[in-house]
Design brief:
alpha+beta; three-stranded antiparallel beta sheet; three-stranded mixed beta sheet; elongated; 52% helix
């Protein structure tokens, strides 16, 4: 087919029209790959520009207003729930620590009481020896005094007073005798010394009680 003009001009015109023809084609004449699928959407990007195409798609997505607010509300609700959980755990830890400290104190007190109870027969022997005059002087008297003083540091107290009102919580009445000028039951004699540690009575004192005649 004849053409007008020289061949160089014709070639240059073809080169200028090639981008237009290539962009409008749906199939690449060299590879046979589809360039523009039906509906005008672009085909899947090649390996060379996949990343750029993905970034372009993501950048073009617009998030609706309610969807952009929802994550903030959800995060605030989650933070409030976490704060409540933290406060609950903190309260449980405080209660646990108080319970442990209380149990430790009770365990220590019970251990001391156990030792004191085991030494009460020894103290009874010391009292008997003192009543018989065996501890008036000498090394055994000094040892007995040191033992009693050491036990006092652990809260041990004697219940051995006479002339006081009878108290069934700390006294055990073995004998009752009428007494003169007695208005209430009164301890007239201690037969066996009682002991207590703080508010706990380790052993009640065995006593003779004078009662009103």
């Amino acid at each position: 087919m004849p053409h007008h003009g020289n061949e160089a001009e014709h070639s240059e015109g073809n080169e200028q029209r090639k981008p237009v023809i290539r962009d409008n084609r749906k199939v690449d004449p060299e590879t046979g790959a589809a360039r523009h699928p039906e509906g005008g959407a672009k085909a899947a990007p090649t390996d060379g520009d996949a990343l750029s195409q993905a970034e372009e798609i993501l950048n073009g997505v617009e998030v609706p207003a309610e969807e952009s607010v929802a994550p903030g509300a959800a995060a605030e609700a989650q933070a409030a729930e976490l704060r409540n959980d933290l406060l609950r755990l903190q309260a449980e830890y405080v209660n646990y620590r108080k319970r442990v400290e209380r149990d430790r104190a009770v365990a220590g007190e019970m251990a001391v009481i156990g030792v004191l109870n085991s030494l009460l027969p020894v103290l009874d022997d010391v009292d008997a020896a003192r009543q018989h005059g065996d501890l008036e002087d000498g090394p055994f008297a000094a040892i007995a005094t040191k033992l009693e003083n050491a036990l006092k540091t652990y809260g041990l107290e004697r219940i051995a007073e006479t002339g006081v009102e009878f108290d069934p919580t700390i006294h055990e009445a073995l004998i009752q005798q009428p007494g003169e000028d007695i208005e209430v039951d009164t301890v007239s004699q201690v037969l066996r010394t009682g002991y207590r540690s703080g508010e706990r009575v380790l052993r009640a004192a065995q006593v003779i009680v004078a009662v009103p005649a």
